[in-house]
Amino acid sequence: MFTDATQADAALSRAQAQPNLLVGAYLAPVQPGPTGPRALHFREAFRATGPSARARGLRPHP
Amino acid sequence: MYSYSQFDRAFLAARNAQFRAQVARRISGALSEDEFKPLRLMNGVYLQLHAYMLRVAIPYGTLNSAQMRMLAHLAQRWDRGYGHFTTRQNIQFNWPALQDIPDMLDALATVGLHAIQTSGNTIRNITADHFAGASADEIADPRPVAELIRQWSTDHPEFQFLPRKFKIAITGSPTDRAVTRAHDIGLRMVLENGQPGFEVVVGGGLGRTPVLGKVLRPFLPQADLLPYLEAIVAVYNQLGRRDNKYKARIKITVNETGLDTIRALTEAEFALRRRQFSGVDQQALAQIAAQFAPPTFAQKSTAPYDRAYQSDPLFRAWADTNLHPHRAPDYAIVTISLKAHGQTPGDATALQMQAMADLAQRYGHDELRISHEQNVILPHVHRGDLPALHAKLRAHGLATANVGLLSDIIACPGMDYCALATARSIPVAQDIALHFQKLGLEHGIGTLKIKISGCINACGHHHVGHIGILGLDRAGVENYQITLGGDGSETTSLGDRAGPGFAAEALIPALERLLRAYLALRRDADEPFLAAYRRLGAAPLQRGALWR
Fold first, then answer.
1. Is the CB of B98 inside 8 Å of chain A's CB atoms?
2. How many angstroms separate the CA of residue B139 from the nearest CA in chain A?
3. Chain B contacts of A20, Cβ < 8 Å?
4. How far from each other are the two terminal CA atoms of chain B, in whole angstroms?
C-alpha cells in the first residue's frame, strides 16, 4: 500500500518491467483495514478474495 | 454421433503438441504474456480475473457419455471439482494451472474434444437446437449439417483472421430453440417442394449493439449451403471494419453496407465458389449423416411412468416441467436442470457430470446435450425409465423441477470470474431464485425467462430475456438495468429498457413488485408474462409495480 503517488508509480513501473513474471499489473485504490489493505472498488475486492458466488454456489449433493 | 477419423485425430495431436511447446516457452519465460496471448487464445485459453480459463468446445452441444466422463475427469484432476456450462453450449474450467493445460487438451483429444476456435476472430463453435434429432416438431436433425460446418470452418485458412468473432447457429425445427436471429448467421431449416433447405439469416447479434438478423435468402437448397456460407464470410472478411473492434461484427457491416448490397455481393461470390466445391461437401455430408442415425428405440411398457405420475407428486412436478415431447411417442426428452435454487447457473460438479454420463449410458442411448440455457439434456429416454431416472437424479441434486420457470435463469460468469464484467451476475441469479422459492410464486408465475449479463457484451443474452438484467458499474457501485419483453424464440424480439437501473439491494424487490403486478393484470393463469407484456405494454406493469 502506497500513500505517495510517485512511489506507487515507481512500483507499478517495476512490476511492468517484469512481463514474464507479472501480468496486467495496475494500481487500485485501497484503505487500511484491520487485516490489511481493503480494496475500495468491488472488482478489486473480488480479485483479492475470489468469487463471491462460490460461498453460496454449488450445494453439496447427498 | 460423429466419431473422429484418423485425419481428425492426427490433426488434433499435432495441434496439441504445438501448443504444448508454446506453453513450455511461456513457463520458461521465453515468451511474455503479451506474446503468448494470441497463441493461447487460438487454443481456448483465456486469462480471467483469478486464473487462466480453458473453454472446451462442445460441437452443436452434443456429447456422449465418454466425453461427459472426460469433462468430469478434467474437473476432478486439474480444476476445482466443477465445470461451468455456458450459453454457447461449451464448458469452461475456471481454475486450470497453465502447465496442466496441455495434458488437459491431450486428455480431451482421446474422446474427440478440443478447445480450438473457442476464442479469437474465427468461426466459433457451431451451436444448434439442443433437442435436435429428438424433438417431435423437427423437420430433420440439423446436426449432420452442423458437423459439416464444423469440419469446414475448423482451421479454414481464409477465415483465421476475421474482423471479429463469427457465430453460426442452426435449427431443424420451426420452433427456434437456438436463438438463430441473434447470431452472425442463423440457419433455419425449411422445406420447399418437399426438399429441405435453409432460410439464411445474417447480421444478428446481441452485445453492445443488439440487432436481430435479417433474411438474406428465404430458401437455400441444402446442397448449396457450404459455398453460400463461404461466400457470406468471404464478403464479410473483405468489408468488415478493422479500425474499431466495436464496429467489426457482421451486424455492423450489414447495417452500414445495406442488406441488398450484401446480398448481391454474396450471390456474386457464391456463383464463383459454388463451382469449386464439385460435390465433395455433399459426399462428406452423406458420410457424416450416416453417423447420426437415430438410436434403435426400445419397445416396452410405459406403465411405470403412468403409475409414478399418478402417485408421486415430486415426479409429477418434475415431469410437468422438465420433459418435452419426443418424436417417438413412448420416449421423452429430459432436461436436467443445472439451476437448483441457490446454485450457480450452469455449474456441475465432477460427481454430477459422472452421474449424468452414467444415466445417459443406462437410460439415454449414450447421448447428452448441453443447452444454451445452461442445462443438460438426455434426448432419448423411454417413458418407462423416467421414474428410475428421476430417483437417481434426485440423489445427485439434479432433479430440480424448474425448466422454463423463473429460476431457470441464464447468467454469464459476471464479475465473479470474467475480466470484462462490470458487475456480478451469478449472485443475482442465486438471490432471485432463492427469493421467489421462499415466496412460493414460481409455479404460479409460470413460463418466464430471466437472463442476466454482467456487462454489455451480453453473454447472458439479457436482450432476449422476457426479463433481462444487465449489470453495470455506476461510479464504483453495481447497478442493474432491466429490459422487458425480449424473446429468443421464433417470435424473437429485443427487450425494451425499463427506466433507470436499480442498485443491487433494490433489484429483487423491484422484480417482485413487477411480477406481482403481472399476476394481477394477466388475463388468466394461462397468459404467460411475455404474452401479457405484449398485450399490455410496459406502462401498466411498471405502474402496477410502483416502479418509479
1. no
2. 38
3. 29, 31-33
4. 53
- A·B CB contacts under 8 A: 70
Residue A48 confidence (pLDDT) = 87
B197, three cell numbers: 433447405
Same domain membership, residue B365 and residue B316? yes
Residue found by looking up cell 447468467 in the block? B411
Nearest to B344 among A40, A41, A57 (CB): A57
End position of a domain, from candidates B331, B366, B395: B395
Distance from CA of A22 to the nearest CA of B (A): 8
Distance, CA of B43 to CA of B339 (rounded, Å): 29
B177 plus B199 within the same structural domain: yes
Beta strands in B6-58 (DSSP E): 45-47, 52-56
- CATH value at residue B28: 3.90.480.20
Q: How do beta strands B496-497 and B477-484 pair?
A: antiparallel
Report the complex ipTM. 0.86
Give me the residues of A, 10-29, that contact B with CB < 8 A: 19-21, 23-24
Give the whole-angstrom CA distance, residue B402 versus residue B444. 12
pLDDT along chain B (548 residues), means of 10: 91 97 95 93 95 97 98 97 96 97 98 96 97 96 97 95 97 98 98 95 96 98 96 98 96 98 98 91 95 95 98 98 97 98 95 98 98 98 98 97 98 95 96 96 97 97 98 95 97 95 94 95 97 94 71
Residue A31 touches chain B, beta carbons under 8 Å:
no
The values of phi and psi at residue B336, to 5°, are -90, 115
Q: Which residues contact B264 (CB under 8 A, 6 or more apart)?
A: none
Distance of CA B209 to the CA centre of its chain: 19
Domain that holds residue B244: 142-290
Output the pLDDT for position B185: 98
Total domain count for chain B? 4
**Taking CB atoms and an 8 Å limit, are B478 and A54 in contact across chains?**
no
CA-to-CA distance for B216 and B232, rounded, in angstroms? 10
CA distances to B215, B373, B524 from B174, in Å = 15, 18, 27
- How far apart (Å, rounded) are the C-alpha atoms in residues A57 and A54? 4
Residue B118: CB atoms within 10 Å: 25
| pLDDT per position as a tens digit, B231-261 | 999 999 999 999 999 999 999 999 999 999 9
